[in-house]
Design a protein that fits this description.
It is built from six helices and two strands; from the N terminus they run ααββαααα. Strands 1-2 form a two-stranded antiparallel ribbon. By secondary structure, it is an all-alpha fold. A hairpin with an 8-residue loop joins β1 and β2.
Length: 185
């Protein structure tokens, strides 16, 4: 990542393996102990813009919070490490003044935009096709299992009916005289 380009919370959250709400909570805790994030001029206070040194501070916060579980204590510890220079020398407090930075403008040529769009469409199509085929495969598997179960049930019923029919046809009516004397009339 170019250290001159800033990222928004969603992008940083994905990069460090958390969600934007948790990232925002960590940033608020760091701001309580004096850390300054750059902000754009959108909204009431502006959105935080995260640079490489901010991401490094948040990674330290993430690693420490999993061990200590106390937001205030972790924020103070991160600030101590930053002030002592324990981390990379590029980690520092940003934008000492509260002047909002001008928004970052990104421009693409028509060809670059077309290539980017095509790549996104291909990746999305591939992912959707994979997910759809998995769903269809599971659905077919369930339908085949249901069909097999029904066939086995019908086969068992048919076999039982044939056994009963065979037993009935083999038995000849026996009268009381034959049962009593065991002989034929």
């Amino acid at each position: 990542m170019d250290s001159n380009l800033g990222l928004f919370a969603k992008q940083v959250a994905e990069r460090i393996g958390t969600n934007p709400h948790t990232l925002r909570r960590w940033a608020i805790e760091l701001e309580k102990v004096g850390y300054k994030f750059s902000r754009n001029n959108k909204g009431k206070d502006g959105h935080r813009i995260f640079y490489q040194h901010d991401i490094e501070a948040l990674i330290i916060f993430r690693d420490l919070i999993s061990q200590l579980q106390d937001y205030e204590q972790v924020a103070k510890l991160v600030m101590t490490r930053i002030e002592e220079g324990v981390n990379d020398t590029s980690t520092c407090i940003v934008n000492e003044e509260n002047d909002p930075s001008p928004p970052v403008k990104v421009s693409f040529t028509e060809q670059e935009l077309k290539q980017y769009t095509e790549r996104i469409i291909e990746e999305t199509s591939r992912r959707v096709a994979t997910e759809t085929s998995e769903v269809i495969y599971k659905r077919m598997e369930n339908l085949l299992e249901q069909r097999d179960h029904q066939l086995l049930t019908q086969l068992n019923e048919s076999m039982e009916n044939r056994r009963l029919e065979a037993a009935v046809t083999k038995e000849e009516p026996v009268g009381w005289f034959q049962r009593l004397f065991g002989g034929k009339k």
